[in-house]
Design brief:
The chain is mostly helical. 65% of the residues lie in helices and 0% in strands. The termini are far apart.
Length: 227
């Protein structure tokens, strides 16, 4: 027992055994392959078979299919955010947004079939898994505006629309004209840059980013006035 009278078993989490960690990783890798090939509606039996493990092992790690999908989606987005954050940090002041968008869109190209399945499994109404990306984008947008690299009337919704449009270009052209999205993104970024001509039509705030995400984003005005 410890100083508070609690047993050690109630105050610590037993680390996963090495073989259990290895099985978990095999299941996740198999799930990526199966969902990329057959979509998110594919059965877990095929995932266990592909991993060369029993279905009972799969359920011990992921009691429900939603648990498995949730883990895959979170790992994917965490990886994208980590790489985008590192890319943005390497850019000169104010250019992090552009570098982040190039990196994010390249990731979408790399994970095209797999990301498509996961996108449908977790639609835009699922805010929690996308929050970190948009927190990062909001910060980089503000830095770019303060540095004079992008127009003052550019909104987070405009950045969101750019990402959505590039994803559509990737889906439509990757088999026939791979890499076309790069020209499209270059055109979009040219439109982001400072101009004396206002954007038309004007958007009423960031309503295109779902309200559930916006409620959890930091308020840039509050950040400016914070001590």
């Amino acid at each position: 027992m410890n100083a508070t009278g609690e047993s050690a078993s109630t105050t610590s989490v037993r680390p996963m055994r090495r073989d259990a960690l290895r099985n978990r990783r095999r299941l996740l890798e198999a799930a990526r392959e199966v969902f990329a090939e057959h979509g998110h509606r594919a059965g877990v039996d095929e995932i266990a078979r592909r991993a060369d493990l029993g279905i009972g092992t799969l359920y011990r790690h992921f009691p429900t299919k939603d648990d498995l999908l949730d883990t895959l989606w979170q790992e994917l987005l965490d990886g994208i955010v980590d790489r985008a954050t590192a890319t943005a940090a390497e850019q000169p002041p104010g250019l992090g947004l552009e570098g982040c968008l190039w990196d994010l869109c390249a990731e979408m190209e790399s994970y095209r079939s797999y990301l498509g399945s996961m996108w449908h499994a977790f639609p835009p109404s699922d805010h929690s898994h996308r929050l970190h990306i948009w927190v990062l984008m909001q910060r980089l947008l503000r830095e770019a505006q303060q540095a004079g690299e992008v127009r003052d009337d550019l909104l987070l919704s405009d950045v969101f629309l750019a990402v959505v449009s590039v994803r559509g270009i990737i889906d439509q052209t990757q088999d026939t004209a791979p890499g076309t999205w790069r020209r499209h993104l270059s055109i979009l970024l040219a439109g982001f840059r400072r101009s004396h001509h206002p954007l038309r039509p004007a958007l009423q705030g960031d309503g295109l980013i779902s309200s559930g995400v916006l409620r959890r984003l930091p308020d840039p005005e509050a950040a400016d006035t914070a001590p």
